[in-house]
UniProtKB/TrEMBL annotation, chain A:
This is PadR family transcriptional regulator. Residues 16-89 form the Transcription regulator PadR N-terminal domain. Pfam families: PadR. It comes from the Bacteria. SUPFAM superfamilies: Winged helix' DNA-binding domain. It comes from Agromyces humatus.
UniProtKB/TrEMBL annotation, chain B:
Signal peptide: none annotated. The keyword Ribosomal protein does not apply. InterPro entries: Perm_prefix_1. Keywords: Membrane, Transmembrane, Transmembrane helix. The chain crosses the membrane at residues 109-126, 138-157, 164-183, 203-222, 242-266, 278-296, 308-329, 341-363, 375-396, 408-427, 448-467. This is DUF4153 domain-containing protein.
Amino acid sequence: MRLGKDLVAAAATPVVLGILAEGESYGYAILQRIADLSGGELEWSDGMLYPLLHRLERLGHVDSEWRQSPGGRARKHYRLSVQGASTLADQRRQWSVIGGVLDQVWPGGPDDRQPRLALGLG
Amino acid sequence: MTTEQAHTLDELVASWRSWMERRDALSVRDVDELESHLRDRVDSLTAAGFADDEAFLIAVKRLGGIDDLSREYAAEHSGRLWKQLVLDDSARSGDGEAATSAVPFLHRANGLAVALALGVGAGIAVKATELLTGEPELVVRNIAVLVLPFLAAWFAWLRRPPVATLIGVAAAFAVVTLALNLYPFDGGSSTVTFATQNSATAVLATIGSIVALWLVTGIVEAGGVWQSDRTRMDFLRFSGEWLVYFVLIAIVGGALSGLTIAVFASIQVEIMPFIGEWVLPCGAAGAVLVAAWLVGAKQRVIENIAPVLTKVFTPLFTLMMLALIVAAVMQWNLVDGSRDLLIAFDLVLVVVVALLVYSISARDPAIPPGWFDRLQVLMLAAALVVDGIVLVAMVARTGEFGWSANKTASLGLNLILLTNLAWAAWLQVGFVRRRVPFGTIERWQTGFLPIYLGWAGIIVLAFPPVFGFV
C-alpha cells in the first residue's frame, strides 16, 4: 500500500515534530525512526526531509546545531523548541479530531475496531 | 583493497557534491548535511552486504531526483535564487580558502577593513591638502594624484605585484605630481571655481592625469602582468563595474545628503556647508575605494552590470547615430556646428568604444556570430560615417582658427578612436563572416590601452609647455 502524496505531506510536520519531541535527532535518524514506526509505509525521498526541517527551523519550531558524531562525521542536530512543542500539541488536537471523525464515518474498518467504535458511538 | 574502495567512495561523493553545489538553491552547508545523510545511508547499506559503489547508487537514488530536491529547497529558501552579497566568509567555497574560521581579520569580507581604511585615507588626503594649501582648485587639479595612490595601494595589497612594478608605478605617480604642480599654469590663484579660472592646459592636464593614472593603477591591479591581454581585459571589466558602482553610490549618497540637509533644515540647523565642505569631498574620495572593494566582493556573486547596459543601449545608440546621419545629410549643418562639436563627438566615440569593449568583455568566444554582432557592425559603420563628416568639417575650420590646446587634444583623441573603430569595424565584419576569430577582436581593443595611456601622458606632460601653459 502506498500512502497518498498529499496525506504524506500533511502528516510530515506532526510526525517529525513528534519524533523530535522524543529527544533531539538528525536527519538520517529521523527517517530511520519514521521507517521503524510506520513499518516502511510512511516514506518519501530521503532528501525531502531537509527542506522540511529547514522550514520548521525558520518558523522557530526547531533549533539546530552542527555536531561531530562519535565517528567524526559532522551532523546537523535538530531539537524541538518551546514554540515547536506547543505547535505539536496543537497539531495533535487537530489530528485527533480528524481521527475521531474518520473512526465514526468508517464503521468496521479492516483492523476490527468494532468495540471501540461502538463505545465511541454510544 | 578496502582502502582503494574507500578512496573510490570519496571520489564518488566528491563528484556528487560538485554536482549538487552547482544548484543555486542549495548552500554549501545544505550539501554538507545531505552528504552526512548520504554517508550514513551508505554505511548501513554496506553493513547489509552491498559494495561501496552499489550502496552509493542506492543512497543517491533514495535522496530523490536532484531537480525535485532543488525545487523543494528553492521553495523554502527562495531568497537564494536572488544572488546576494554575503559578507560572511563561512558561506564561501571553491576559493581555495577551505578554512572558514581561520580567516585573518584583514582578509575578512574580502578585505573590507583595508578598503575602508584606505578610503578614509583618501578622504583625509583630499581634505588635508585643501586645508593646508587653502586652494580648492589645487585639490581639483591634483585629484588623481591624491586619490588614486590609495586605489593602487588597495590593489598592491590585494594582488602583491613584484616590487619593480610598484617602483615603476610610484615613479609614474611622482612624475605626474611634479608636472601638475611645478608647471606654471596661468590663472587659478586664490579663486574658488576652477573651470573658469584654470587655464585650458591645466584642465586638460587634470583630465589626462586621471586617465593616465587610472591606467597606471591598472598595472598594479594586473599584478604587474600588464602585457597579457587577459589581465588587460580583466582591468577593463573592473573599470566598467567600478564606474557603475561609483555612480550608484554617488546617486544614493546625494539623495541621502539632500534628505539630511532637509531634515536638519526643518529644525533650523544649517548643515549645508558641512555637507559641502566635508561629507562631499571625503565621501567621493572614499567611494572610489568602496566601489573598488564592491567590484571584487561581488565578482563571483552578481552578474556584471556593464555588459547588460551595453546590450540595452547598443540598439538605442545606433538608432541615435543613424538619425544624426539622416539629419546631417538633410541639413548639412554639422559643418556650422558649435566650437565644442569635436569634443561632443569625442564623447560619442568614447561611448561607441565602451559599448563595443563591454560587449566583448562579456561575450563567450565560443558562440557563433549572431544578430547582436551584426548590429555592432551597423553601430561601428554609423559611428565612422558620423565622425568622418565631423572630422572633415573641423579640420577645415581649425585651419581657419588655428590650433588651440583643446582642439589639438580632442583631435588627437578623435584620430585615435577613429583608428580603433575603423579597424574594429573591419574585424567585426570579418567575425560576422566567420573569417576572423573572436580573440583577434579582443586583442585589438586591449592593445589600445597603452595608446590611450600614451596620449594621456602627452597631454599631461607635453601639452602645457607646448601651448605656453595657457
